[in-house]
Structures are given as C-alpha cells and as structure tokens.
Structures
1.
Amino acid sequence: MTQSLVLSPQMQQSLALLQAPTMELKALVEQELQQNVVLEEVPTTDTEQIEKAKSDEGADSTVGDAAEPPADVTFDPATEKPNGEPADDFMAEFERLWQMDQEWREHFAATNIPMRQSAEDEERRQFMFDSLVSATSLQEVLLEQVRESTLTEEQRPIAELLVGNIDDYGYLKTSVDELSFSTNIPVERIQDVLRVIQTFDPPGVGARNLRECLMLQLERSEGTETMEYKIIDKQMEALGKRRVPEIARELKVSVDDVQEAIGRISRLEPRPGRAYLSDNNQYILPEVFVQKVGDDFVVTTNNEQIPHLRISNTYKDLMSQAGNSPEVLNYIREKIRAGKFLIKSLHQRQETILNIGNEIVKRQREFMEKGVAHLRPMTMVQVAEAVGVHETTVSRAVSAKYMQTPQGIFEMKYFFTAGIQTSNGEGMSNTSVKDMIADMFKREDPAKPLSDQEAVAMLKDKGIVIARRTVAKYRGELNILPSNLRKVY
C-alpha cells in the first residue's frame, strides 16, 4: 500500500494551458477543437456583436442571471408534461447546460474583449508581418558565392557537389577520397575547388574538423606565424586537455603567453554556420502589454491572439431530439462538460497572467519609468502571496512568456531576481548590479583594464558592497574575460 499524488486529466490540461506560450497554446486549442465536436471558435464578427449586445444590455446581463431559452429551441410535446415541466431528468439537465452556455457567453463578452489598437499600431504590426522573410540557409549563401567566384565552368559542378556535403554547422562531412571514388573525379581537382570554398564566408567554412576550422580562421585574420596558429597546428591535443605548461615547454614560451593565446583562441567560432541556423530566428509574441496612461501604468493581456471558444448551438438541436439513444446523450454531455472546462481554463489562464503582470508592474514601477538600473529584487513567493496562488503556479504562468514594457520587451522571468543590500538599507536586483559591472568594463581603458578588485571599489563608492568573487562570478556570466586577457598592447 502506497500513497501517491495523481493529477486528474483535467488538472493536467489546465496546467498545460497555463504554462504554454501563445503560439503553443493556439496549437493545443486547435487540437481540442478537432477532438471535441461541441466546441467552436468565435468568429471576429460574432465577437463584435456579443460586445455590442453586452454594452446595450448593461446591468441586465450580469453573469449568473437566469436566462430564458431562445425562441429557436423547441421541445417535443412527447417529452414534456402538460404543465410544461420536463418529462425526465434529461430535459432538466439540458436546461442547466443551456443556462451554463448562456452564462459563459455573457462572461466572455465582459472579460475577453481584445485590446484595441490604434490605426498606427495596426499598420506598424502589419508592416512587421509583411516584412518577415524566410531565413537564408548556409548552402544558399555558399552557392551564391560559387556563382560570383572565379571558378571555371568545369569546376562549378564540383563546387556544388562540395556545398551539398557541407552540414548546417559549416563542416564538410564527406572525405575528398569518398567524393572522388563516387564521382570518378580526381582527388586533386576536388581539393583545388575545396581550397576555394574554404576562402568563402563565413570564415572556417568547408573545414573537415575543428583543427582545420580554427586554422582557416587564423590564416585569414592573423596569419600562420602567430602563437595561436602554432598551438592549434602542433599542440591541438594538449590544448584540448588544457596542458598549458606542456604547450609552453614545446613552444619555448612562457605560461602567461600561452594563456593569453588560448584566450584569443577561445574567441574563434567553432561552428561557422551557426549564424544561418533556422533556430536562431525567434519571433516573440508578448503575452502582457504595459502602457503608460497619464501617471499610471495599464496592464493588459494579449487576448487578441488567444482563441475565443464557445459551445456550439448545434448541440441544442441534438439534445432536444426525442429518440436519441442514452449513449449519444451521455457522449454529448461529456463533451459539453469537457468544453466548458477548457473555456474556463483559458479564462483562468488569462486572469492569472494578468494578475501576475499587475503585481510585477506594481513592484517594478521604477524599472518601468527609468530602466534596468532601477530593477528591484523580487521573488516568485512574494508575487504568489500577493496574487493568492502557489509559487509553482507563478513559475508556470511566467515560463517562456514575454512582457512588452515602455523599456522594451522582456521575458517575464527577467523580473524575478535575488537582491543585494546597499549601504542605505535598500535592496538592489543583482541584474542591475550586473548591468553596472558590464557598463564599467565597457568604459575601461583597453590598455589598463579594470581588475575585479577595482570593480569592487567602484561599486562600494556607489553604495553597493559585494565580494570580489561575486564580481568575478558576474563577470563570467557576462562572458567578460579576466583583466590580463582583456589588455590590449
């Protein structure tokens, strides 16, 4: 006998909807639309009519009010009692389901109104979509350079063959001998064309291994007489194992010189085709919008991109027909309940994200007005307590979601950072401290780069007291090398 916590399918679905970003959410809803016959998406024209009817009715259309069945719903006399009461429990269930649908439609009209945009915003948004172009692959870039190169007509088919065997990272995945064997083209001719391709952009393309890739980049930028080139050419195995003293002995140079050369080698690109990978093109769709209206910040959710669902009116005809088997009626009932739960889950998702967005803006008002330097420490526990949900709910709600603010578009998790106590007793986000450190190193004299200890002293002058090892940690997270490797002679 064991005790275990098991999530119901409905709860799992609700958590999945909460965690999913907008584009993924639309895919999940499309899947539900295909599986649940009683669900339908509200067309834009219907949405406008619902909103207009809601504004006309005013207080008479509050959620939860009893509503009369529509005139187009008729009841078979065989299924009614003389006094008009339902003849069985099924018709009572039908009336409850119909009222449930009406309540949701009124609730939808009151809460799921898309954010209105000005004509200028709409024009700018459309221009952005019209300007999106498909990414150019590495192979297309290389073939264009083949057409513009000095290769002869006999060499170009060989060049196209080689380009076809270069992978997305820029490496030639087939050996020259194998290509020669399969095409009956002499090895020398293939190698001549390969040497031309290896002069194309990006630097290092067409290499057969990492060593050749790095050497091609150094040949083009620094030449073959540099220490970096010699290390890669003669001591590649020792470099991979970080045997710095051994490399220094073999090259008869100091360990410090080798360390500096390794630092410069680390800035080379091990995957030349990385910039052309399709995964690099990420289009962000904000979930939350923050706009300044007067002296206040107004927070809205991106309801325009969220599918608006309702229970289809068609089910009323099916359920009111006398003669349907109990299996059919039970099937329709279950689909209606599942559809209602999905609609409620979508609304709850938007409401949760909106509440969290409001709390973020409330706590990060200075950031919204002045920028990153004024980001305050904030934890998910604090927001969860203010919103009235569990910490894990906040974590799921902000996962992979973005907020458009007056300072730009930021991932919602960006606002949750640990704090550092300042000399005046106030808390400062470690993200703000990182931004200050990055600015310090950016403004340093390249001939006399700042040390970590000097950065500590500069931060102390600004009222921020942190240890040197903390500065070193933040510097590493910012991909900034130590001072001895940043020095320019």
2.
Amino acid sequence: MMKSNIFLQALRVGPALREEIEHRKRVEEIIDFLEIQHVRKTPGGTAALRPAEARGPRAARSPLEPTVLLLDEPMAGMNVEEKQDMSRFILDVNDEFGTTIVLIEHDMGVVMDLSDRVVVLDYGKKIADGTPDEVRASQAVIDAYLGVKH
C-alpha cells in the first residue's frame, strides 16, 4: 500500500518514487523466494500458475507480509514429491518471514512433521491440543481414529 499522497504518486517523484522502488524490490524478493519468475512481467490478476504453484505459500503474489497464513488442505491431490516441495516451502515461509501458519490437513504424517502444535477436531469438537508427540499419545485421538464411541 502506498502511503504517499496521490499527486506525488501520479508524478512518481520524491517519497512516492522511493516508496515504489521499495515495493518493487520487495515484490522481486518474493517472486524469487517463491520461484515464480515466469510470471514476473505478467499483469496482476492474469498470471497463470501451474497447479502446484497455485496452492499455499507459492500463491502469494503480494508484497504484504501477513503475520498469519491459513492453508486449507494445500496438499490435497498432490503426489509425494509435490508434498515434500510444499512442506519445504511452508517451513521456508515460517523461517524466512516468521509467519505463523495455520494448516488444515488430513495427511497426519505431514501435520506431525511440520507442526509445533496440533489441534485435533472430531466433527467440530476439539479432542486434543498439544505437541505432535502429546497428540499422538492422546487416547481421545486414538479412539477417534479407531472409531471408538464414548
């Protein structure tokens, strides 16, 4: 978002020019980080990303730095190699930008490998909350997985 006044933006002078240069630099960093150089010169909103790029962190096309990123089943339909790539990107986004990532995913291997904290819901009811090891050992999670009713 540009903070300088509209007149300076239109003339591209002074603070507006400096601000635009900073924004362009940040966008270039994000393009390089996300490895989507092929869309660099494509007008916004018209860039065609490959299916694996259109998910999760790679889909970020904005210079904004959100503090929380919500990923709703970003690995659905992916093969093992694509899941590994996406997992690396998720970890990189967290490491590089300090972004908190809320991941909704049914692949428990992925969830347990990526997460510091796991919350397990069973039909909308929270049945476990803790570290991956705590959740793995939770009797409520084991029962839900096995279909044991209480």
